[in-house]
Amino acid sequence: MAATLCRILLPKQGWLPFTQCVRHGSKAVTRHKRPLHFLKQKLMSVTRYIPPPRPAPPGAYPRQTIRDQEDDPFTLLVKKNLKSVFQESKMVAVVQNSGSTADEMMLLKYKLHKHGITVKFFPNQVVRSFLKDSTYSNMAPLFIGHTVLFISKEPKVKEMLSSLRTSRHMLLLGACIDNTLLSAQGVVSYSKLPSVAVVQGELVSGLTLLISQTAAMLQRHPAQLSALLQQHVKQQSSEGAPKAQEAT
Fold it and tell me: Which family does the record assign (predicted)?
């Protein structure tokens, strides 16, 4: 009897306690916030206030000394050369060098030198500093990367473009021709214009034709008037002769 009771109270797997904690189901919790609508989340993120950055307190950065603002003698010399280049040259073209070799650059220099075009190299930082205080300030964005200047005393645009076609590593960015800033497409359009001698010849021929036409018009009216008067006189004389004969 005792053995049977022990088997009932103590199962084979192990002893179980007489009191067990049973978790009953609770009600749904309604205190959590409901998620915002997707459009409302967008609106809240767009209209969220973004405070401006706090300025640095005085004395946090070192002050710029006068020595940093002054140019060294080399920079002054380069600026002086740039000033003479822009004053004496009617064509200043900016070309980007994208990896041409020394032999290719030497060959390009030789081709341009035959047409009176010179190749100049200047540091971009010095060039931008010079252009900032000059009338050519709009050319400053062109000086980025490895740039080269093609200068000539006369605007020889056709010769420059023909020489650049043979060099695949040189790209024309823009030019200043006769104190006029032109883009790369503007330089191509400028090269298609006729030369000054041709334009002057066309102008002279047009003016000569107008003068000759004006002189012909001025001479035609008096001649026509005199011809009409002579015809009228002849008619009057021919009509007066029969009347005289009838009277006699």
Answer: Belongs to the universal ribosomal protein uL10 family.
